[in-house]
Fold this sequence. Notes:
By secondary structure, the protein is an alpha+beta fold. The chain has helices spanning 3-13, 33-48, 130-143, 154-166; strands at 53-55, 65-70, 73-85, 89-95, 103-109, 111-117, 123-129.
Amino acid sequence: xxxxxxxxxxxxxxxxxxxxxxxxxxxxxxxxxxxxxxxxxxxxxxxxxxxxxxxxxxxxxxxxxxxxxxxxxxxxxxxxxxxxxxxxxxxxxxxxxxxxxxxxxxxxxxxxxxxxxxxxxxxxxxxxxxxxxxxxxxxxxxxxxxxxxxxxxxxxxxxxxxxxxxxxxxxxx
Length: 173
């Protein structure tokens, strides 16, 4: 299968803006074999869609699970929670696989501390800054039923809606 078809297949599994599941809050989860299968699927979809992160609600599963890439290394975090945010913020363009990869400017904390569990159920703590902090904040927003459209200016939201109406997902004819 060609790259375009693989990408189109991945986007076919990713819920897009307007899907009610993306506005729902996710529930905590325990590590088991079913969760491991979900994580494998999420990682494959994230890579096929050329993403750097994916939250379970984006594939219709309301569970607190995210997969992401930091410095080319894959991570999984179960029941993640931001336990600290810096007061210093940075505004930068942010895309989303659930918005057909369109980008809007979003203000985020420059640094965060995130706690959760890995796939073995071990407690993990990540202290991140810059782009890596942005990725985690973005994915954790999805677990809370929030998207970048909830965090951008009204003008950007209007522009984003106009662009969404005019475009198609990869693979649509």
